[in-house]
User: Fold this.
Amino acid sequence: MNSWNPVLAHARRPLILSGTLVALSLAVFFASSYWHEHVQAGLTQAQAELATRQAALTGKQNDLRDTQAHIDEFHALEQRGLLGRGDREGWVEQLLASHQRTGLPPTLTYALQASKPVSQQSGPTTDGTAQAPTTPEDPAAAGPRFHDLDLTLSDIHEEELLVLLQDYAAHVKGRFRVHACSLADPTPQGLSAQCRLRFFTVPLPVKTPGTT
Amino acid sequence: MKHLIYIGPAGAEYWRQDRGGWQRLAQAPQGPVWAVTDLAEESFSEIQIPRIFGRDRANFLERQMAARFPDTRYRTVLPARGANSLMERLAPPRQMVVAVDAADRIDAALGVGDAPLVGLWSSSMLLATLAGRARMPADLFVVLPGDGVLRIVFLKNHQPVLARLAPSGTQATEQAAEIARTLRHLENTRVVERSERRYPVLMLGHAPDMDAALAAHRLDAVASRAPWAKRAPADWRFPLFDLALTSPPGQLAPARLRASYLAQRFGRFAYGTGALCLGAAVWATSGHTLSAMQARQAQAQTRQQLQQVGDELARTEQAIARYGVAPDLVRQTVALDRQEVAQAPGLNDALGPMATLVGRNPGHRVARLDWRVLTGAEAACVKTPAQGDPQTADSVPPAPTANDTGNPAHKVELQLEIQLAEGTGPRERARVLSELSLGLSRAPGVSVLRDPAKVLAHAALSSAQQTGTAQNFTWCMSLAKPVTTATPASGVAP
Assistant:
């Protein structure tokens, strides 16, 4: 290498200049590469943000479409008493009123059970009576709930039972279905009827202070 | 234009090559210059080398050259030729060294002017290279007559082994005799075997009748196919000069003397490399720049779309807010009513057909009717049969039939107990049961899962069943009401 030192000494300026060019080239390349990646990252981020917002818009448009399509039905159900905690006292009062209107024998007994979440629905016991009460649920808990109204009548015919139920459904402020009915013990005066009416309610959302 | 310094016995001459050929110059040139020596001190020497490699080999050669030519730095090792194996190619056992042992005169000639030195070659080496390029015989004399001198180079196996600059006249006989004398020297020094062999001689310019003169000394003149063999140049040194300009092997000047020229070449290479790198960087950068500008443009468009979507989102939220109720509440409420209330079968759906069916057979009455809505995955008619009901004690509810359709939450389990009139005979009993079973199975949405008519067909018949006691038979059925509309929870409007 000693014999080449004079050569390198003579070539000092070209070496320095070419080294500078190479370094400059590398700097330019890496700087442009970094800038390119930075801009690409920004674009990717913007596109991701756009996709997210478009998904949110699609969701909101679906919400609006559903609301527009079902708002009338919703208001009708609201009028029918499906929303809120349910007029439990009114249900019982209306049962007595329907019983009186239909002129049935004074053999009516009733029991309105505590409400439960709809997710806990199951069939009645074998004798058609209500199940044993469980741990009381918090009525303010979110989610739809059902309320079982058990009634018994004796010395009643099938048609009379149907008339009572139709009158009750027409006048009560609530939505229910006949969940179970048992007609037995036929006598010349009629049958014994044990029925369970299941009311449903949708609690209104709890508004937190400060929200509209 | 290229320049050359000719260092001969009379001193240095400066030559320039242009389109017209070689022109002599009066003073030292300025540009890069090639140098050619034509001195008596030119010589070849063979070095035997052990099988060593790399730096060891280089150091050994340097020491050998320093030992043989201690007074000159104008020496170099020639590339080996004629390797028979890979090992000989990698580490030749013998190599020739060429040197000019006239350092002072060369230094003096090269010291004039500041022209960068490209390299230094000896005439002997150039003659040997000429002979090698001309596809000459392996053992060959190459002779260049000069001004009162005769340069003779002997090649053995294409390798130069001897060079001498001998005084000689211009007569063919004198020149032939000098060549023969050189042959005798080679025979005496056992470089060649003494024999009757006739050696070829390549003459670059010769006196008339040279062939005959050579033949007298058992020497044969050979012709070359080189261009200068067809038409003699004005000066027989010109072919050597032309060869020197190609920078052939055998360059003698140390790197220190060639530093300026080598630095220029290296500088051009460095500049070229730098320019190449810069060009590549610019090319790559242009690609990055173009892509980045496109990305920025796309980003701007995306931001614009983002703004539009945001505005649309705000308008949609305002439209929803005007209804004053959360969409989830609307969906939940409507879905709950449809699934649990509207879609559920009604009690009158069962009582009506039952009453009509039983009414066709007066005297028979409904003893019991149990109607209940099945929820979740509850199956119909899976309870154990009632005590004292022998007709149904052994029956097993079959699997749901093809009539079982719809959401299980909308199914109803219906158990119907019929009390036949007293005194009903077996045949009448069978007829009534069959009629009732047939009527029940034909009712819309009904699947009879427990049929006493089928059980009775294989049961025992006894008098105890016939008279005195009422006969009760129980059917168990499932009643389904098909779902007709989609619920809002799926997001699809009805």
